[in-house]
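Appendix C: a fully annotated inverse folding record. The material below is reproduced so that readers can follow the format used throughout the book. The structure is listed first as C-alpha cells, followed by the designed sequence.
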C-alpha cells in the first residue's frame, strides 16, 4: 500500500470508490473516527513490526502513514497507546474466535481448528492488526497486567477445547496446557516471518499451519485436512461495534484540560515526545 493511498484512507478518505460505501456505513462521526483510527493502528503496527517497537518513533510512524505528526495525534497519544490497543484488538479477535468455535456444533478438534483458522486469518490478513502483539514486556506495567489477564482467559478457553476433544475422543494430549503453549507459540511467531506480498496467502498459510498443529494431537488426522469456511473479519463487516473502543488517551485528556483554560490566540499546544 503506497503512502499516498494510506494518507487518503486515514485522513480525508478521498479518491477511492469504496470510500463512499464506507461513509454510508457509519451512522455517526464517532463511528467514522473509530474506523479511521483502526486504519491508523493497523498501518502503524506494520511499520513498527518492520523496524521494531523501540527503534520506531512517532515521527517515523507518521511519515510512513503519509500524514503529519499532528494528524497522528488525533488518533493516538503515544507509541504505548498503539501497542496496548493493538494487544487489546488481538485479544478481542481471540475472544470472537472463541465464540465462533463454541457456537460450532462439532468435536473438540472441530472447534479447535475453526478457532485457530479464524484467529490466524483475522490477525494477519489484509484487515489484521498482527505484528507487534508478541512484545508483552514493552507494555506499561498496568497495561501488561490487563493484557496478561485477558490472554490467560483465552489460553484457558483453548485448554477447555483440548480437554473437550480428549473427552469426545477426537484429541489426545498428555498435558493440555503444554499443548496450548506450543500451539500459540507457533501462531504468534507468524508475525516474525509472514509477508503479505509473499508467495502464499494468509488463508493458505493458516490451512497448512493449523493442519500441522492439529494433526499432532488429533486421533483421526484426516479431519485436520478438511477446509472450512471462515467468517469475515469482524472489523470488515462495518457493522461497527468496535473491537477495541477508542481510548481517551493522553492527547484527548490534554485537549480537554486545555479547553478549560484561557489561551492566547494563535498559541498552539506542543505535543509530548515519542
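Designed amino acids, in order:
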Amino acid at each position: 500500500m503506497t503512502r499516498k493511498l494510506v494518507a487518503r484512507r486515514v485522513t480525508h478518505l478521498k479518491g477511492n470508490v469504496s470510500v463512499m460505501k464506507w461513509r454510508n456505513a457509519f451512522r455517526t462521526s464517532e463511528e467514522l473516527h473509530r474506523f479511521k483510527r483502526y486504519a491508523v493502528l493497523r498501518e502503524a503496527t506494520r511499520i513498527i513490526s518492520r523496524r521494531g517497537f523501540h527503534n520506531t518513533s512517532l515521527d517515523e510512524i507518521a511519515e510512513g502513514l503519509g500524514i503529519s505528526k499532528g494528524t497522528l495525534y488525533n488518533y493516538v497519544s503515544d507509541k504505548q497507546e498503539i501497542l496496548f490497543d493493538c494487544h487489546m484488538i488481538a485479544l478481542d479477535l481471540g475472544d470472537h474466535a472463541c465464540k465462533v468455535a463454541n457456537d460450532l456444533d462439532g468435536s473438540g478438534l472441530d472447534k479447535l481448528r475453526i478457532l485457530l483458522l479464524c484467529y490466524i486469518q483475522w490477525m494477519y490478513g489484509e484487515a489484521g492488526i498482527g505484528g507487534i502483539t508478541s512484545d508483552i514486556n514493552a507494555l506499561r506495567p498496568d497495561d501488561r497486567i490487563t493484557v496478561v489477564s485477558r490472554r490467560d482467559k483465552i489460553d484457558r478457553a483453548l485448554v477447555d477445547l483440548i480437554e473437550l476433544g480428549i473427552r469426545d475422543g477426537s484429541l489426545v494430549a498428555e498435558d493440555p496446557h503444554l499443548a496450548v503453549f506450543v500451539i500459540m507459540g507457533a501462531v504468534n511467531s507468524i508475525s516474525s516471518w509472514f509477508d503479505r506480498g509473499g508467495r502464499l496467502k494468509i488463508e493458505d498459510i493458516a490451512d497448512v499451519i493449523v493442519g500441522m498443529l492439529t494433526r499432532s494431537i488429533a486421533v483421526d488426522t484426516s479431519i485436520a485436512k478438511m477446509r472450512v469456511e471462515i467468517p469475515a473479519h469482524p472489523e470488515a463487516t462495518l457493522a461497527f461495534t468496535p473491537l477495541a473502543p477508542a481510548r481517551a488517551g493522553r492527547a484527548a485528556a490534554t485537549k480537554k484540560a486545555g479547553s478549560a483554560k484561557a489561551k492566547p490566540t494563535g498559541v498552539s499546544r506542543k505535543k509530548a515526545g515519542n
